[in-house]
Structure formats: C-alpha cells, structure tokens
Design goal:
Strand content: 5-15%
Strand order of the largest sheet: 1-2-3-4-5-6-7
Structural class: alpha/beta
Oligomer: single chain
Bound molecules: adenosine monophosphate, manganese (II) ion
Length: 326
C-alpha cells in the first residue's frame, strides 16, 4: 500500500538536497535529481557516458536514464555514474496504449531488469521495428521515397527506429522545415505516421514492471492533451493496474495544472516523480531543467521502499533513513 503524506515521517527532519547527494524527504526540496533522461540507446543525441558527464557538470547527483523501450544504455551509464560518484537508478520508458492513446510508462528499477521485464522489452523492440516498417510504408505514400532507409541513416546505428528518426528524414529530404513541422504534418497524433497499434496495453507493461520488482511511473501526464476527466480515468486505471507513481513535474509545465495534478496524485496515494525528458543539447531543456515544484504533501518517488536503497546509498550517514515511509 502506498503511504499517505501523513505517514511520511521523515519529512520534518530531513536535509534538503545538496551537492553531497542526499535525497530530500519533501518533493519540493528536490535539487540535483532528474529521473527522465534519454541517450543514444534511444532517441537522445548524447551517449550514456556523455549524458552522465553533462548531468554531473550541471550539478545533478541522482539520475535515471530512461530510454524508450530499452535498457541498452544502462551498463555504460552505470559505469560513468560510479566514476563520478553519482547515483543512477536503472530505468526505461515503455510505450503502450490506453483507450487508443499512446501512453508512456517510466520503469524505475531497484536493479537490472529481471526476466519478465527483459522479455517485455524484447517484445517492445520487435513492436517498434514492425511499427517502423508501417510508418515507412505510410510516409512513402505521402511522398518520402525510401523512408525506412533514410530514417535508418538518420539514426546512425542499428537501434530500433523511432518517430524522431523519420522526422529528421523528412527535414533532410526538404519536405518540412523542422522537427516540430514534421510531427505536426506527418508524425503527430492523428497524422499518417502516428501508428500505435503495435504497442501493448497499459496494464500489460505495468504488470511487467511490477512483477520484476520495479516501480511503474506514469510519464508526463499533462502532455497527452487529455481532458481533466480523461486524465483522472487514466490515473485510476494506471493505479488499478499496479502503477505506483506519476511524473508530477516534467520539464516546464503550467504551474496551476501542476498543483491540480499534485492533488490527483495525493488522493490516489501515488508517489511523485520528476524529470526533464532531456534528449539533446541546444533544445529547450537541459538535464535538471524543471518547472517549479509544488509544495504540499506528495511523497517523492525516491522514498518508495523498493527504490530507497538507491537513496540511502548516496546519502550521508547522518541523514535519517528515507526508507521509513513503508
Ligand atoms: P516514438 O517513441 O518513436 O513514438 O517517438 C516519440 C518521441 O518523439 C518522443 O519521445 C519525443 O522524443 C519525440 N517527439 C514527440 N512529439 C514531438 C514533437 N512534436 N516535436 C519533436 N519531437 C517530438
Ligand atoms: Mn523521445
Ligand atoms: Mn515520453
Ligand atoms: Mn521520454
């Protein structure tokens, strides 16, 4: 059973985040933490090693690398994290469907993925490949010849292709001026290249994560453009499926809606996570870039009993244990 805010007894005494890597008991005291980052293992532009170095330069001490549907970048990221005395939570961002809408679920793991999640990720990798074949077929009909080959060239490796690879191919071919236009005209919701039918249902991916001892976190809930009613239904279904957290703050987002979301999480006993969803330098977001963190009683995801091993490992010995929420 997730804790209520009232049972979060570490709240009053704990230190705030600082350069030593201690993890705050209160969500809004979080500094130096980013639990949603991408590397070249998926559609990010920095290698896991370069990503961790950038995070370190930006003063982060606790991060999760959460590539789309893969953990291929984690071994390299973990090695660099150790060398920089940073804490890395193993993670991944899983693609799925809920009521026909493409939804992302971040898996935060106490250790490397077990057999269930590894098998699930293999299924997602195959689904991603089949989806890319279908996206290519549709984009060829829309005027991009050899779409698959062009996207593969943009990816620059043999990892499973994603929509950003097709978006870059469309830009390179001169069909659109930039990436936002590529999504707006070809790849975004309702456009020809928006293919979701290959993804498993939300409850299926949540189950993979939970069965392997991970924590399922609903990624960027405010980015699906849902009505408030639909959002509450999504949160209810996600919780019923075994989901235990949601990203209360994802990059920059509307402050009023963030406060409203905090209430929705609290009422369901969901832990609150946060992350920039960083993909590449030069964009709007850098690792650790976040909108204002709401004050209140939400419980930070790093206090989840199954993740608190990460928290205590990097905390100074004098810090009250953050595992006390259970
Ligand atoms: P995929 O996982 O292949 O469905 O691709 C989704 C990814 O495309 C997201 O994680 C973003 O990195 C990127 N993306 C989605 N929408 C946009 C957009 N409007 N402009 C630029 N990139 C986007
Ligand atoms: Mn992405
Ligand atoms: Mn996402
Ligand atoms: Mn992401």
């Amino acid at each position: 059973m997730p804790p209520t805010a009232a049972s979060n007894s570490a709240g009053a005494q704990s230190a705030t985040g600082d350069a030593s890597g201690s993890l705050p008991a209160r969500f809004h005291d979080a500094t130096g933490i980013d639990l949603h980052l991408h590397s070249t293992a998926s559609d990010g532009r920095l290698s896991p090693d370069a990503l961790l170095h950038l995070c370190h330069r930006r003063g982060l001490h606790t991060v999760a690398v959460t590539d789309h549907d893969t953990v291929a970048g984690l071994a390299e990221a973990q090695q660099t994290a150790r060398s920089l005395d940073m804490t890395l939570l193993p993670g991944a961002e899983l693609s799925c469907r809920w009521r026909g809408i493409g939804i992302h679920v971040v898996a935060l793991l106490p250790a490397a993925p077990g057999a269930v999640l590894a098998d699930g990720l293999a299924q997602l990798s195959e689904a991603r490949h089949q989806r890319a074949v279908e996206i290519a077929r549709r984009l060829e009909r829309a005027g991009l010849a050899q779409a698959f080959e062009r996207a593969r060239e943009e990816a620059g490796s043999d990892r499973p292709l994603g929509r950003p690879d097709f978006a870059r191919a469309l830009v390179t071919a001169g069909l659109v001026p930039d990436l936002p236009a590529a999504f707006k005209r070809y790849l975004g919701a309702g456009r020809p290249g928006d293919v979701k039918t290959h993804w498993p249902e939300l409850a299926v991916v949540v189950d993979w994560i939970v069965r392997d001892g991970g924590v399922a976190v609903l990624a960027h809930p405010l980015r699906y453009r849902l009505t408030r009613r639909k959002l509450t239904q999504l949160l209810d279904d996600f919780t019923a499926a075994g989901g235990e957290g949601a990203e209360l703050v994802s990059g920059y987002q509307n402050e009023q809606r963030t406060y409203d979301l905090a209430g929705l999480l609290e009422r369901r006993g969901l832990y609150a996570s946060l992350g920039s969803d960083f993909h590449y330098e030069g964009g709007a977001l850098a690792p650790g870039t976040l909108g204002p963190l709401p004050t209140g009683n939400v419980v930070p995801i790093w206090q989840h009993p199954r993740l608190s091993g990460h928290a205590t490992r990097s905390a100074p010995a004098s810090l009250p244990t953050t595992g006390s929420v259970s």
